[in-house]
Design brief:
Chain lengths: 109, 344
């Protein structure tokens, strides 16, 4: 049985996929993941998940975020007075996300 | 997991083999021209319905690589015991463990092509069908030989592995990320042993030079025959599996390791003849190398290598009970389904 392994580098970080192991059950999957993926790289925590339980949908299946004009849901659309600090921070995150999304959609790959 | 073409739930058929069967049934596998057009770094993964020719070529390459990691580890294992100091013992032990881990990572990358299972590949290695690097067919008997593997062979391997981070089979590239991360320590540890020996007693220096002369031609043959004689290069390179040719890699290795060898006081043997070009790069006279021995090794027929294959087979048999008990355990929990595979 194959178990996918996700590693969290330090507390508070996300668990990121880092590989997979053969193991007969969850306890042994954790043990093998520890030896194979937590021995050398900085590791705070590991998750193991049965491979067959992972579902996937990707850009060939769907257009994430839709294809119609969605400018109404971006902070950048609404400009009046200078925004409060935390609102401006949110806007700049959105602006960056939209740019990245656009470069993918427009085939920048 | 759903396939893009049919939406049939794959787990009902089971893993990569099931997916492969599904593509045969549907006849939707990518044609070879598309593969060649798209071939780029990390371009293909288990989600793509790759043609059989690609999957077989990639399996051959990754299985060879995985086998080499395992056989290299077995070659170095005795030196955990023979290491002259506690630090060297710890380092050799860590390195051997790393190499076995690399083997496991690579068998997973190979398995994901759906051609062979890990068990099949490990059995092929045990029964003498599995191919692996020429250097690991030679016996290693003395401590002075350790840097020949740990510095020069690992250095040569790392040169090649660094280019494979851009291979077109994504799981292989992912394995290379981790392998290269760990391999830096191996090569530098090997270099430290070489430095220690070459600044040691006159006798140590002479013994090291002798070991170097014995290993040097094998190390140069590490990169295989010239591109003209290489049977598999063309296709593997066209579909992006291989990133650099044998000749390019050999030249790149010589350019950085000939000066290093000389810096540590090693004399480059007269044969094979190596000439220095005007631009400072090195060229090897291929005809000076023993290609009969190389191809005998490539067929797993070279005597010391045969003994090393059998030695590993015995070790694999000795721990069969561990694998069997884990397989049995998995069967009790999850029932039939996938072919049982627990651990090496």
């Amino acid at each position: 049985m194959i178990w996918e392994v996700f590693r969290q580098k330090k507390a508070g970080d996300y668990h990121t996929h880092c590989g997979n192991v053969h193991a007969p059950d969850r306890d042994m999957a954790l043990l093998f993941a520890e030896v194979q993926h937590g021995r050398r790289m900085p590791t705070n925590s590991l998750w193991v998940v049965p491979k067959d339980e992972i579902g996937e949908v990707d850009t060939e299946d769907v257009a994430f975020g839709g294809t119609t004009d969605k400018s109404y849901r971006w902070a950048m659309t609404y400009n009046f007075e200078a925004a409060a600090e935390e609102v401006a921070a949110s806007e700049s995150e959105q602006s960056e996300a939209e740019q990245q999304r656009r470069s993918v959609v427009e085939g920048d790959d | 997991m759903y396939t893009r073409t049919t939406g049939i739930k794959m787990q009902s058929i089971g893993g990569p083999i099931g997916k492969w069967l599904l593509t045969i049934v549907n006849g939707r596998e990518m044609d070879i021209e598309t593969v060649k057009e798209r071939a780029g770094p990390r371009e293909f993964s288990a989600k793509d319905d790759m043609p059989e020719e690609y999957r077989k070529a990639a399996t051959r390459m990754i299985q060879f690589h995985a086998n080499s990691e395992i056989m290299g580890a077995y070659l170095e294992r005795p030196f955990i015991r023979q290491a002259p100091s506690l630090e060297r013992k710890l380092a050799f032990s860590a390195k051997t463990q790393d190499e076995l881990g690399h083997g496991q990572l690579l068998y997973r990358a190979a398995e994901s092509l759906g051609v062979k299972t890990r068990d099949e590949m490990l059995d092929e290695l045990a029964n003498g069908e599995g191919k692996f690097l020429n250097c690991f067919h030679y016996p290693m008997e003395s401590w002075v030989e350790t840097p020949m593997i740990a510095f020069f062979v690992d250095g040569a391997a790392m040169r090649r592995q660094a280019t494979l981070k851009n291979t077109s089979w994504e799981p292989y590239a992912h394995a290379m990320d981790k392998v290269c991360f760990e391999e830096g320590f191996h090569v530098k540890h090997g270099e430290a042993i070489l430095h220690e020996l070459m600044t040691g007693s006159k006798k140590e220096q002479e013994m090291t030079q002798e070991a170097f002369e014995k290993w040097w031609p094998r190390i140069i043959q590490f990169f295989g025959p010239t591109d003209k004689q290489s049977t598999h290069h063309g296709f593997a390179s066209e579909v992006g599996l291989k990133q650099m040719s044998n000749d390019e890699l050999r030249r790149a290795f010589l350019n950085s390791y000939v000066p290093k060898a000389e810096k540590y006081g090693l004399e480059i043997p007269d044969t094979p003849r190596i000439t220095k070009n005007d631009d400072g790069t090195y060229e090897v006279n291929e005809d000076d190398l023993d290609w009969d021995e190389f191809f005998q090794i490539a067929k797993n027929e070279y005597e010391p290598g045969v003994g090393q294959i059998d030695g590993r087979k015995k070790a694999q048999e000795a721990v069969a009970w561990v694998r069997e008990s884990m397989d049995k355990h998995e069967q009790t929990i999850y029932g039939g389904g996938e072919s049982p595979q627990a651990a090496d």
